Each structure stands twice: as C-alpha cells, then as structure tokens.
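Allow me, if you will, to draw on your knowledge of protein folds for a short while. Thank you for your consideration; the sequence and its tokens are set out here:
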Amino acid sequence: MRCVSDLNTHAGPAKPSEIQPSVWHAHHRIRKVVIYLWVIVAACAVWAALVMYIWDKSASMKSLSPNALTSQTWSLFPNPESNYIAYYIPGNDFFQVWIALFVNMAVVQGPLTLMLHCSELIANVIRDERRWRCATRSKGLRMATNPVESIFTHPICLVLFVAKPFLHWMFGQSFIIQNYATTEETLYLPGVIMPTAQIWNLCIALFIYACFFTFVALRRPRGPQPAAYGHIQTLANLIDEWSPVMWWGHKKDGIPYCHAGTSDHPLPNVKMDYVYAGSGAGFQVPLS
C-alpha cells in the first residue's frame, strides 16, 4: 500500500501512514513550478529597483516625473503625481514601430503569463488528489463528474480563476502604452510608461500568490489513503474494483498481510497497526 512518492521500493508490505507526502515531494515538476514562481517575484522586485535607480540617476526622467516615490505618491492607480520612467519606440515606419512595441510587451509580460499557466499544474494535481480522497468519505468517489462544477467548487481553482485576470490587470498598470507627440505635433510615436509604485504593487501581489501556491505544494494530506496526485499507474495499482461510485478502505485480513482496495460499497477504515501488502506503485514517475 504505497503512494506515488515512494522511491526505490518494490511493493513491499508496509503499515499505513497517518500523513501522506506533499505534492512537492511527490512530483519533481511541481518543485520546478514553485521555484519559477519565486524567480518571477524576484525579477519583479529587480524591475522595480531598476526603475527607481534609472529615475534617480537620470535628469531627463526627473523632469518628466519630478515626484519621488514616497508614501504620499504611492497609490493603486497611476496618477499625475506618480513616480515613473518612460521611453518611446524610435522609428519612421508605423508597422515596424508597433511590431517593436509588441515585442517589448511580449518580452516583459511573457514570463508572467507562463507563470500563471504553470500554476495550473499545481491546481490540477491538487484537484485530482482531492477527488481521489473522496473514496474514504461517506458518499464515496463518483466517477462521473461535471468538469465545470469541479473547477468552481475547488478553492485553489477559484483562486487561479481570479488571480489570472487580476495579475494581468496589475501588470497593465505597471506597463502603460501611450502615444508621444513629436516636435511637429503631427506624428505620434508609441511609448511606454513604467510607474514605480504600480510595479511594487505587482511585486507584492506576486509575492502573496507565490506564498499561497508554495503552501499548497508543501501541504501534506492527512489520512492513511495513499496519495496518487492524479498519477495513472498509481491509481491503477490502488484500485482493484471499478464502479460508478467507489470506496477505498480495508478489504481483507490476512496472514501475514492485510489487503486494502476499492469496492462498490463503503469499506471500514484501514487498521493502522496492521501491515498491508504493497500495491506495486513503487516508483516515482513524472506526472502528466
């Protein structure tokens, strides 16, 4: 009776564990995602610090934005009193200028978008594990579920659903596209404004986001039911009877080992002091 994180074991007998390994321990790709979250937080802090440094060292930037970043000029939304730096995209060809601006946007916003998509891996794995652990509850594990309902009833999925547009909106407050008029006031060139306070606001929001998903990844499920985290081979080893509604628990006493598995009717809890035969889920395999 082993979970997906057991390493270098060959389905040997084992006593049930009261606490299961976290998804951080079970899945090496989750560790990479969490590390990437914190890399983005650090990169955003460096971005904000770099903007402050350029403003402090550039007289032209101080003439555009004379107000230093203080508690009085700090705000959620950019305003005329905000501290910022700005630059425009040089060029004579309209399409080349806007292509260059698009590349600028993609380079800066791309890592944020990738981070949010990678966070879905954590949310999906935790959601799968939550479904699997329904097999030890009174109502059992129902095989036929509404995928939309499973998204809107899972707290982590709801957090991700709200965080995606909110963080992109906060990025939009930190990287503003605006037209600049030339000296002839007939040709307008697109430029970029980077308000310092809004970049720090984005950094704080990303820090909270990374803390939340780090906590989720490190949280260890309680109960003797082995953690599968959606791994197909592990689930196949733990499920010995398939039915529209399944329960997992103690199935048979044995000498020298007991047997745990699934059934189409409620099963008693496994006996914590007894040794159960291995399930064959003995190797850590990357989850997909």
About this structure: DSSP finds eight helices and six strands in the chain. The CA atoms of residues 170 and 202 lie 6 Å apart.
